[in-house]
Amino acid sequence: MDHGEKFLRIVEDAKTRIAEVSAAEVKRKLEAGERFRLVDVREDGEWAAERISGAMHLGRGILERDAEKAFPDADSEIVLYCGGGFRSALSADNLQRMGFSRVYSMAGGFRAWKDAGYPTQV
Length: 122
Fold this sequence. Notes:
43% of the residues lie in helices and 16% in strands. It has six helices and five strands, in the order αβαβαβαβαβα. Strands 1-5-4-2-3 form a five-stranded parallel β-sheet.
């Protein structure tokens, strides 16, 4: 995908303030049964086509609106993913600005998950 220069600039800025975790770390956490919320912030059609099993869907367009209801404990661990790690970085930045303290973006997004050969759900 060809991303615009201005979009990439705001993503890089957001990444200076957020933490990222790798797809391997997310897989390890899932397999270990660790308690955290895995959130797919992609568009509805992307979610419907394929996703990581166990993830919940809160698209980027409604994430901030619904975050307080979805995550009543602002200290809950939240890992966000999108297609390539850009929208989830922006989302993580916004959730942190809203007061959520343990928010992470999955580096490389769903693409990194699939490239690693990890299982998906349709």
